[in-house]
Write a structure and sequence with these properties.
alpha+beta; 6 helices; globular; 3'-5'-RNA exonuclease activity; tRNA binding; transferase; tRNA nucleotidyltransferase activity
Length: 237
């Protein structure tokens, strides 16, 4: 039995509220159970220096966790003077996921930065961030379309993410913290609306897991991401 009493293939309760920021070109508040992430997309009429003159845009992301998003207060990274390795890894993952579904030349020489701030953490913060970041990005691109800045085919597809793991010998979908901290193996899956795989991050915590177990996790991920993609569509329709 899972701590949350969910079925092995059952997501946590997921909700997405769009347009939650007064100033950002795109935004949403996404909740995966008790994991809550605020995602905002900001448009800039510039690109990184290394992209100047190449006639294409850029999508990047920043990720952070508020001090009391967790059980005990964590020190703000800005006071340390540098982001942690975990933070850098997650924000690069979010950026890669979003760029996989954007036609960067059609964006023009512009940059969209998606900020993902974890308000409350209970496992799966990176997967919630990616799923919500796409909604914020969609809103930003819609804002640009209304001003004739871009055409309809800039955003080529959806992208969403979910975690899976082996908990008590059973493959399960969408791990919360209680499961993630005790899982025999866990993996994060990032996939597009067309079913393409953007990234898979998997780790065995105790003993190596088999190809058969990995295939079961992949099947769970496809099911869960399919449900998240439908929720994204409902949110932006």
């Amino acid at each position: 039995m899972r701590p949350s009493k969910r079925q092995p293939d059952e997501l946590r309760r997921v909700s997405i509220e769009r347009a939650v920021s007064l100033h950002a070109e795109g935004s949403c508040l996404i909740k995966f159970g008790n994991t809550h992430v605020l995602c905002t997309a900001s448009l800039e009429e510039r690109v990184p220096p290394w992209l100047k003159g190449q006639q294409r845009g850029w999508i990047t992301a920043e990720y952070s966790m508020l001090p009391r998003a967790t059980h005990e207060r964590t020190r703000r990274e800005v006071t340390k003077g540098y982001p942690s390795g975990r933070t850098q890894e997650i924000q690069r993952l979010i950026g890669r996921a979003l760029r996989a579904v954007v036609d960067l030349p059609r964006l023009g020489e512009r940059q969209i930065t998606v900020d993902c701030d974890v308000i409350q953490a209970d496992g799966g913060t990176r997967t919630a961030a990616i799923t919500g970041a796409w909604v914020a990005l969609y809103e930003c691109i819609q804002w640009m379309k209304l001003r004739d800045m871009v055409k309809d085919d800039v955003l080529r597809d959806q992208v969403a993410a979910v975690s899976c793991g082996i908990y008590g010998t059973t493959p399960v979908l969408d791990l919360d913290y209680a499961e993630d901290s005790n899982a025999e193996a866990d993996a994060n899956f990032v996939m597009t609306g067309a079913g393409g795989i953007v990234e898979v991050q998997g780790t065995a915590e105790t003993v190596p897991f088999s190809q058969e177990s990995f295939d079961e996790l992949m099947a769970l991920a496809r099911k869960g991401i399919g449900e998240l993609l439908q929720l994204q569509k409902l949110t932006v329709s």
